[in-house]
């Protein structure tokens, strides 16, 4: 059994999709980020970075004690190695998969994440931040378009690089972007969205707090801001 420590957002959807695709047994351990439930010492022992998602594998392949993994790219790689699926075995395919996974971790995710922050959460009037990150988010979509115009999936075959990128494409409308001039990305997204494992993951992750994370413009209370971006979040990372 694998515990998926999660909240109903895109980074967490990646891991739920992978677990559904592989058929590995799992259970959800839910948090509410605006309330700061992920900032408690118990979760920090699982993820020193106090971010979601994270997993705890209660049956690792080395037959040792439960093993925790944090960071979504590392989790996807761990689950691919555990299951023997969704990571090509040949040298070139494996490297392509790793390259596009690294691209998502270093580029697509952070740039789109910053676009979401400045468009949806930052105090209004932050025009430079909005322009900077939304423009970079759009540029990265065209990088995807270039690749997907020549191959059906990022590494040639469906795998963890696609799973890592997929949730970010579903949230484009929240930052004022779309797929109208990106036909290859649009087709790729639709094919992945139609997979039964993706539908199952979306249904499993859905909870009563989902609407909190999908508001186009989020007005946070001081307590919510502190837990998400402010003093409480920073304090949770100090040694104690």
From TrEMBL:
<dbReference type="InterPro" id="IPR004046">
    <property type="entry name" value="GST_C"/>
</dbReference>
<dbReference type="Pfam" id="PF02798">
    <property type="entry name" value="GST_N"/>
</dbReference>
<dbReference type="InterPro" id="IPR004045">
    <property type="entry name" value="Glutathione_S-Trfase_N"/>
</dbReference>
<comment type="similarity">
    <text>Belongs to the GST superfamily.</text>
</comment>
<dbReference type="InterPro" id="IPR010987">
    <property type="entry name" value="Glutathione-S-Trfase_C-like"/>
</dbReference>
<dbReference type="Pfam" id="PF00043">
    <property type="entry name" value="GST_C"/>
</dbReference>
<dbReference type="InterPro" id="IPR036282">
    <property type="entry name" value="Glutathione-S-Trfase_C_sf"/>
</dbReference>
<feature type="domain" description="GST C-terminal">
    <location>
        <begin position="90"/>
        <end position="216"/>
    </location>
</feature>
<dbReference type="InterPro" id="IPR036249">
    <property type="entry name" value="Thioredoxin-like_sf"/>
</dbReference>
<feature type="domain" description="GST N-terminal">
    <location>
        <begin position="1"/>
        <end position="87"/>
    </location>
</feature>
<protein>
    <submittedName>
        <fullName>Thiol:disulfide oxidoreductase</fullName>
    </submittedName>
</protein>
<dbReference type="InterPro" id="IPR040079">
    <property type="entry name" value="Glutathione_S-Trfase"/>
</dbReference>
